[in-house]
Amino acid sequence: MGHLDRLRGVFRAALSLPDDADVDELEYRAIPQWDSLAHMALVAAIEDEFDIMLETDEIIDMSSFTQAARLLEKHGAGAAF
Hints:
- The protein is an all-alpha fold.
- Helices cover 53% and strands 0% of the residues.
- It has helices spanning 3-14, 36-50, 56-61, 65-74.
- The longest helix has 15 residues, at 36-50.
């Protein structure tokens, strides 16, 4: 399984979305499930899944699936789109 597929799985699990939910265009607060509390759970799940530690400014700026994927690349844990 590739990094983006793993990231999609983390998003779906952390936000309690169906297994077939399309998350590639998902943005923070675009759906009720992605609120500030879920954001912190999502960050923790990403850090656990990819064994990285995100900086506070990265956590604040991570407002979409695309930005999360870019953070993985920055941390050497993923591939660019």
